[in-house]
Design a protein that fits this description.
Layout: H1 2-9, E1 20-21, E2 24-29, E3 33-37, H2 39-48, H3 87-100, H4 106-113, H5 121-136, E4 141-145, H6 152-160, E5 170-176, E6 189-195, E7 198-201
Antiparallel strand pairs: 1-2, 2-3, 3-4, 5-6, 6-7
């Protein structure tokens, strides 16, 4: 219906279901499954940062205190020895992955992003650790599958933008790390909203 309406108003060409969009690889099986990955984009980052042959690691960050610029044992990075693997470039590329398909590296990238103007060699190595994690998980992505018992009233509401015939169940989950930021002892809070069987993360 939407495409037919657009064709009646504008001169357009229907190319079918989208398969590649802004670095995302999309597969859609009507009424069954939707998958979004960024394997190709991830591999390009690794090649550009000369990390395509690195040894993978199981986690994006290591447990423990994050190096702060004022720490006596932390040495500032005055000159970047290789502009192709610059700290800001790595973090910027990782941020796009987080926004699209990789919530599993969100906390690591959030932490790295705090030091864009005061990064050190230690931060640069931690950024490369995230790349090493991606080296072993480049095929990770988002997968949506149809529920075995979908709530058709809610689906109709989403599709038609009209009030549902029954109450919509909304569940919220939240957590905080209780003053775990070493420099200012602030807490980091995260939450997830679940609307029926659909999730909205933040």
């Amino acid at each position: 219906m939407v495409i037919a309406k657009l064709k009646s108003e504008f001169k357009i060409k229907d190319l079918g279901n989208v398969k590649h969009l802004l670095g995302m690889e999309i597969t859609y099986v009507p009424g069954c499954m939707l998958t979004i990955f960024q394997k190709g984009y991830t591999e390009k980052i690794l090649v550009r940062c000369k990390m395509d042959k690195c040894k993978p690691v199981p986690t994006p960050l290591v447990k423990g205190n994050f190096p702060m610029p004022g720490d006596p044992d932390v040495k500032p990075m005055c000159v970047n020895p290789d502009p192709d693997v610059g700290y800001r470039q790595i973090v910027g590329s990782l941020q796009y992955l987080v926004q699209c398909t990789r919530p599993d590296i969100a906390n690591a990238v959030r932490t790295l992003g705090k030091f864009l103007n005061c990064f050190t060699r230690e931060h640069h190595m931690l950024a490369k650790r995230v790349l090493r994690y991606l080296r072993g998980t480049s095929d990770y992505g988002l997968v949506w599958t149809r529920s075995e018992s979908p709530d058709m009233q809610f689906v109709a509401y989403v599709n038609a933008w009209r009030p549902p015939k029954k109450e919509v169940q909304i569940v919220a989950y939240a957590d905080a790390d209780l003053g775990n930021e070493k420099d200012d002892r602030r807490s980091v809070t995260g939450f997830v909203l679940q609307v029926e069987e659909f999730f909205a993360r933040s």
